[in-house]
């Protein structure tokens, strides 16, 4: 009788350990950073690149940083910032360009909005045209929180 009881106890302990392993594997490395409202701009047949946007919130006590992005929808995915081109002295200003950025900090308790005219994710070498209503997977990689994959809805420009 005694030995049977011990076996049962061992089984219970084993299944609790399994459950714990499962839930830690399913949860992201850090729940502090979340990505919401992800969307991408629809692309025309002539364009091979499109921009994607999202809101990143850092609810944690320490700063984190966006350090990269990827998507099965494009060959290359970069984090870009929109910048004013040319010198301030140049006439007829207002030309905007963009450049890759390696790291964008998200302060503790703060947020970063990827939006038109600011930081954005650039999908370069699209696998196919992005039509309004499509959904693509977008993975944002953070220094501390690691990769977070979200669904980005394709919207009209
Ligand atoms: Cu860009």
Secondary-structure blueprint:
Elements: H1 2-26, E1 33-41, E2 49-58, E3 64-70, E4 74-84, E5 96-100, E6 104-106, E7 111-114, E8 120-126, E9 135-142, E10 146-155
Parallel strand pairs: 1-10
Antiparallel strand pairs: 1-2, 2-7, 2-8, 3-6, 3-9, 4-5, 4-8, 9-10
Bound molecules: copper (II) ion.
Overview of the structural elements:
There is one protein chain. With 157 residues, the chain is α+β, with helices and mostly antiparallel strands. The protein has one domain (33-155): PCu(A)C copper chaperone (Immunoglobulin-like), CATH 2.60.40. It is built from one helix and ten strands. Strands 1, 2, 3, 4, 5, 6, 7, 8, 9 and 10 form a ten-stranded mixed β-sheet that branches. Strand 1 (33-41) and strand 2 (49-58) form a beta hairpin. The N and C termini lie far apart (72 Å).
